[in-house]
Write a structure and sequence with these properties.
The chain is of the alpha/beta class. It has helices at about 10-25, 60-70, 90-110, 150-165, 190-195, 215-225, 245-250, 260-275, 280-285, 295-300, and strands spanning about 5, 30-35, 50-55, 75-80, 115-120, 135, 170-180, 180, 200, 210, 230-235, 240, 255, 290.
Length: about 325
């Protein structure tokens, strides 16, 4: 019997991960944690899933989880996916995006039954520029711009906080830097970009975009959770298209505009419509693109992307 703790469990990716874990073996059990009231069709699939609604921005709640429910359930593996899906900034956002991961990992190293920690990271942590390869593997430079938005900085800090413990912890630790998951409720910047009927892109650029489906992302995380493999894995999706084709397939109109206009256009959109897409976060991807190299994930985890992304669903 394997027992898993999943944070961020009420997201579409969390639900897909739980289904993958429970389909693998009838004896597996899941302790699912989220910030929302659980939906009937959601994570409580059967008696093998226990759901806790918990605010993980508070360290005392994390300690209560780890040495309360996680100890009672004799949890062996943590899959940490908790982060703000919206474009939040400030101390509370950092508490969930970064400090939650640091606290859970520190307490996991003191836990009597835990043996493995899997962190869901993001392909967006990688730098994109004309001086770097367009095929991105685990050694690719990170986006360490001094003035990068907090959304980027938080994800890199959390990722590097987990990297820091590799080789120093008794836990086996894996980080999955995943392609963007184009689906509602996942915090996808590109999904918010495509909600406009007209999608602007920089004139003279049509970057290649790699996208992962909810199903493939859930399966990749489940494979990592059941494995003992250590280290960093880039996790691509099955859909690789030019940005113009992504826009067309989603039923939107693409309009090229001079690059200097992108920032004010999307800044005004955010201010007026209260949307999440931020051009500062996506500038590199909207100019240079990039595709994650999944060879290490295929060789060690047995992951190959299979399910293409569904377009045109709002």
């Amino acid at each position: 019997m394997s027992r898993y703790l999943i944070t961020g469990a009420t997201t579409a990716v969390g639900e897909a991960l739980i289904r993958e874990l429970l389909q693998h073996d009838d004896t597996e059990r899941v302790l699912a944690v989220g910030a929302e009231e659980v939906r009937a069709r959601s994570v409580e699939i059967d008696g093998r899933v226990r759901y806790l609604r918990l605010d993980l921005t508070r360290e005392r709640n994390i300690r209560r989880l780890m040495f309360g429910a996680a100890r009672e359930e004799r949890v062996e593996v943590i899959v940490d996916m908790a982060s703000h899906r919206g474009l939040r900034s400030g101390r509370r956002a950092r508490a969930l995006n970064v400090l939650e991961t640091r606290h859970i990992l520190r307490l996991a190293e003191e836990h009597p039954t835990l043996r493995r920690f899997v962190y869901r990271s993001y392909g967006e942590v990688y730098d994109r520029s004309g001086l770097l390869p367009s095929v991105i593997d685990e050694t690719h430079p990170l986006d360490l711009r001094p003035r990068a938005p907090q959304w980027v900085r938080d994800r890199i800090e959390a990722d590097l906080s987990v990297c820091q413990r590799m080789g120093m912890s008794d836990l086996t630790i894996a980080i999955l830097r995943c392609a963007e998951c184009l689906a509602p409720g996942t915090g996808s910047q590109l999904y918010d970009y495509l909600r406009s009927q007209v999608c602007f892109r920089p004139l003279g650029y049509d970057p290649v975009i790699n996208l992962i489906s909810v199903e493939d992302l859930g399966r990749a995380l489940a494979l990592a959770a059941r494995s003992d493999a250590r280290g960093i894995f880039t996790v691509p999706g099955a859909t690789t298209l030019p940005l113009s084709e992504v826009v067309r397939r989603h039923g939107r109109r693409g309009v090229p505009v001079p690059g200097p206009l992108m920032m004010p256009l999307y800044g005004a959109r955010r201010a007026v419509l209260r949307t999440d897409f931020d051009y500062r976060i996506n500038r590199g991807r909207l100019h240079m693109g990039g595709v994650l190299d999944g060879r290490r994930a295929a060789e060690i985890l047995g992951y190959e992307p299979e399910v293409t992304v569904t377009f045109g669903v709002d």
